[in-house]
């Protein structure tokens, strides 16, 4: 079953084409990774998946009954805490004294 279908999809921001000619199919059970340099449109593509932005050309379809969501890549600790300095932990589940391997390990 096709979960997401994109064919020559184009997305504009403020009248400027940011994503151009995006074509792929994501089938049920498949995983994808989107990689690229800063500013190339990875976040915008994620927002397209989640329905936060509209495509302006081509086809972009999410299968009926499929729920999508966008998880921000930056924390909102500043807004939540009111503190001037924030810390972003790579492991929220870490507790002092507990042996949890790090990414490097």
The percentage helix is 10-25%
- Estimate the strand proportion: 25-35%
Q: How many β-strand stretches?
A: 3
Tell me, rounded to a whole number, the average pLDDT.
81
Shape: globular
Distance between the termini: 37 Å
Count of discrete alpha- or pi-helical segments spanning 4 or more residues: 2
Radius of gyration: 18 Å
Structural class: alpha+beta
Low-confidence stretches: none
Series of H and E elements: EEHEH
| Biggest beta sheet attributes | 3 strands, antiparallel
Main β-sheet, spatial strand arrangement: 2-1-3
Write a concise synopsis of the structure shown.
This protein has 105 residues and is α+β, with helices and mostly antiparallel strands.
Q: What descriptors fit this protein?
A:
single chain; alpha+beta; 2 helices; 3 strands
Description:
This protein is α+β, with helices and mostly antiparallel strands and 105 residues long. The chain has helices at residues 42-49, 77-81, and strands at residues 2-13, 16-27, 57-62. Strands 2-1-3 form a 3-stranded antiparallel beta sheet, with helices on one face. The N and C termini lie far apart (37 Å).
Q: Which helices and strands occur, and which strands form pairs?
A:
Elements: E1 2-13, E2 16-27, H1 42-49, E3 57-62, H2 77-81
Antiparallel strand pairs: 1-2, 1-3
């Amino acid at each position: 079953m096709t979960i997401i279908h994109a064919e020559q999809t184009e997305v504009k921001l403020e009248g400027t084409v940011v994503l151009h000619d995006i074509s792929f199919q994501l089938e049920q059970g498949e995983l994808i990774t989107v990689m690229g340099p800063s500013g190339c449109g990875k976040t915008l593509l994620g927002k397209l998946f989640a329905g936060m932005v509209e495509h302006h050309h081509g086809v972009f379809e999410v299968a009926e009954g499929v729920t999508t969501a966008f998880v921000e890549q930056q924390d909102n600790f500043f807004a939540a805490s009111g503190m001037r300095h924030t810390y972003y932990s790579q492991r929220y589940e870490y507790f002092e004294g507990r042996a949890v391997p790090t990414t490097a390990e």
